[in-house]
TrEMBL record:
InterPro entries: ABC_trans_aux. Transmembrane segments: none annotated. SUPFAM superfamilies: XCC0632-like (SSF159594). Residues 29-183 form the ABC-type transport auxiliary lipoprotein component domain. It comes from Paenirhodobacter enshiensis. This is ABC-type transport auxiliary lipoprotein component domain-containing protein. Keywords: Signal. Pfam families: ABC_trans_aux (PF03886). The keyword Signal applies. Residues 1-23 form the signal peptide.
Amino acid sequence: MKTRTLSLAMLSAVAAISACSSASKTERYQIDPAPAARSMPDKIGSAVLREVSLPQYAADQEIAFQTADGAVRTDARQVWADDPRRAVTLALASQISEVSGARVIAEPWPLSTPPARQIEVRVDRMLAAADNTVRLSGSYYVSADGGDTVRRFDIAEPIQGSGPAAIAAAQSRAVATLARQIAALG
């Protein structure tokens, strides 16, 4: 009898926890830049894009935003639909390829012929700032036998609207802008 009572209590606790984390109460948003048209020459050729390095608050599943007091906050009910590092890496590789015609693939490199270049992106800041912009800043590195490229970037995209959907849209535009900068090697 005691074992049955304990089992019922455990089932009740599991049900209560499940109700608190109900999928219907969690909002998931994508980093998903709009498809880009080819708009520049291919200066990269083939390249492997290493996983993008993000600050901890940007790498977390919850969507981070800055409040007027400067604090970086999150809401556990509003999360990214995919791991942010993976999502940004895949979006960048796709966007660079689309705008330039280059063959940029996120690591690991799946093809038998090795890539001509390696691209690494280190993000210092990727945040919905208190000034109603998404700030994306850091450095990117493109290495090749013929020479290396090292550039800083600092992108500000206005957040059009409010809430996590508007943040996700602005962040997607910022990633697309970064892809164009990397594709131009400028």
